[in-house]
Amino acid sequence: MEKEVQVILKEHSLRQTNSRADIVSFFLKHKKAISHSDIESQLGGKYDRVTIYRTLKSFIDKGLIHQVLDDGQSTLYALCSDCTTLEHQHNHIHFKCLKCEETVCLEGVTIPKVQLPEGFEVEDSNFLITGVCRNCT
Ligand SMILES: [Zn+2]
Ligand SMILES: [Zn+2]
Ligand SMILES: [Zn+2]
C-alpha cells in the first residue's frame, strides 16, 4: 500500500481497510471529480455498491472528499485539500470540460462573494463553470 494513502487515512481518523485504501488511491491517481460508477467499474467489481457508498460517505464525514455538483445525472466526488475531520472548508469553483467531459476542482479560483437580499443566509454555495479545459484547447 502506498505511503501517501496510509498518511491520508490516518490524518482523517479513518481506520485502514482495503476498500478505503483502494478508493483513496483511485482519487489520487485521477485528480478529477469521479462518480460512484467510475469507482465501481474501474476497480473491476472488487467491491459492491454498498461498500463503495459507505466508503464515500465516511470520506465525506471525515473531510477527505467533497461532493461536486455537476449538470449530469450522477454525483461526483473530489479530494479535499485542507479539510479536517471537523469541518469542510472550501470555496473553490468547479470546471466541467465539454469536450473530455471531465470535471475538476480549480482550487486557486474562489467563488466570488454574492450579495444576498436581506433576510437570506448562505449555507453552502456551488459554482460550476463549463467550457474547454487546458488539455482540450
Ligand atoms: Zn472538503
Ligand atoms: Zn477537456
Ligand atoms: Zn472541489
Under CATH, the topology can be stated as Arc Repressor Mutant, subunit A
Mean pLDDT: 92
Indicate the percent of residues in helices.
Answer: 25-40%
Superfamily at the CATH H level?
Winged helix-like DNA-binding domain superfamily/Winged helix DNA-binding domain
Order of helices and strands: HHEHHEEEEE
Ligand set: zinc ion
The largest β sheet comes out as: 3 strands, antiparallel
Which sequence of strands runs across the widest sheet?
1-3-2
Taken together, the total number of domains comes to: 1
Q: Uncertain runs with pLDDT below 50, 5 residues or more?
A: none
Describe the structure.
- With 137 residues, the protein is an alpha+beta fold.
- The chain has 4 helices and 6 strands, in the order ααβααβββββ.
- It has a single domain, classed as Orthogonal Bundle (Arc Repressor Mutant, subunit A).
- A hairpin with a 7-residue loop joins β2 and β3.
- α1 packs across α2.
- The termini are far apart.
Quick tags:
137 residues; 3-stranded mixed β-sheet; globular; alpha+beta; binds zinc ion; 3-stranded antiparallel β-sheet; Arc Repressor Mutant, subunit A
How is this fold's topology laid out?
Blueprint: H1 3-11, H2 18-30, E1 34-35, H3 36-42, H4 49-61, E2 65-68, E3 76-79, E4 92-97, E5 103-110, E6 128-131
Parallel strand pairs: 4-6
Antiparallel strand pairs: 1-3, 2-3, 4-5
The structure holds zinc ion (3 copies).
